[in-house]
Amino acid sequence: MNNNRILINNLKMFQGINQNVTNISLILFGTLLLTISAKVQVPFWPIPMTMQTFMVFLIGATYGVRLSFLTLVAYLFEGAIGLPVFASGGGLIYLTGPTAGYLYGMTLAAVVISYFADKGFSVSYTKTFISIILGSIIIFALGVLYLGSIIGYNKAIQAGLLPFIPSELFKIALAVILIPTLNKILK
Fold first, then answer.
1. What is the number of domains present in the chain?
2. Burial annotation 31-53 (CB, 10 A radius, 16+ → b, else e)
3. DSSP state for residue 49 in the 8-state scheme
4. Of 45, 56, 120, 177, which is least packed with CB atoms within 10 Å of its CB?
5. Nearest-10 crossing angle of helices 65-80, 52-62
6. What would the pLDDT profile of 94-141 be if each residue is shown by its tens digit?
7. What domain range is 55 assigned to?
């Protein structure tokens, strides 16, 4: 693993600080960003449109595999214990309700994007696009599959995928522009 390919490791402000303190701080910061991004939403049924996937893209591309996984698991844990971190609140019901597949998909997507970032995919616009698209596909595949098991697959595609394609393309484009640019600035 080449830690210099992970954006967070290139920030001078983290150098010289105990790694455990840094990791805990980054996990908490990541869950805060995910919470805020969940609250920035356009109401849709059954899944509200939020900026969460954009934050997952950023966390995945800037944190390492382990740190991005722990951040998303901490986020799910915060929601499971009732903290209002999800789009419409918190509680165990969110981990089994209509949005559960998207939440689990975000966790897997962050890990996959981080894996590719570790392989150098976050320094090139084209490679960043590939990893972010793959992450988005993972999120929506798991989300629609799970939602489909509840409301039927045709309805899940109509309500849980198609309305989100334009906003998802915007979030992907924003992430693809931002991530390699930040890498170039920081190196």
1. 1
2. bebbbebbbeeeeeeebbbbbbb
3. E
4. 45
5. 140
6. 999 999 999 999 999 999 999 999 999 999 999 999 999 999 999 999
7. 3-186
